[in-house]
Sequence to fold (279 residues):
Amino acid sequence: MNTPNECPAMRLDTLLLCTDGSEFSEGAVREAVRIAKRCNSTLYVVSVVEVNPEFEAHAPALIEKAEKETREHLEGVKARAEGEGLRCETIVHEGEEPYRYIVEEAERINAGTIVMGRRGRTGISRLMMGSVTARVIGHAGCNVLVVPRAAVFECRKILIATDGSEYSEKAVGNAIDIAAAYGSEVVIVSVAAGAPEVKDAEALVKSAREAAEKRGIERVSAVTPAGAAYEKIIEVAESENADLIVLGSHGRTGLRRLLMGSVAERVIGHASCAVLVVK
Fold:
């Protein structure tokens, strides 16, 4: 059943799904099709066959084989999507630095959200790796939803991570919009590195909690654990059985570069649920 009131909150009207055909992409494929069906989204599916001039010159047959397999995989995804009544377009690129093609396609189609797995194939024929996911998040102008292969995107309980940075403030706002649209339960977490930061963390979760309650979100809790940020975020997500973590692409200690912040990268690497990185 389509629930269009939920979808603007997450910018889900146009989705760009990135897949390499591996088991690591299956969660992203499955959930992108489910989201597109729920929101009546237009779904674009992209794969990048990673090659370089030297490999292209010495192993053209392998490249041709990889491209054929990629197109067959995308046709299978398209058939899946069209079987659900969706509009779906497939895109294949071939070249170095796959993330650049993904980011360019997201800009071309004005994607609201990119959906991808957290890692891809390994070896010469890889199409996406963990570093590609990180670079897509760093360079894309839109939000990125990272879906581990076993994760299910439900938004029943959302964990919001905040450290008071510009990026996390955007994440808080987006997460509250999503929770209000889905009727989600919300858990807000701000991690203090040590005792001197506890008061700041408490002030941050209090502010986010008040913002959530003003939007009519009834089930809101907040925690301010002390320790390593990514470890505590993962611990809270697991103990609370969250099915979505929302955070910013960079935190207060992140450099202003087009790379993903270390906390976001480690949360994505360890989380068992979907992670929405807000840009």
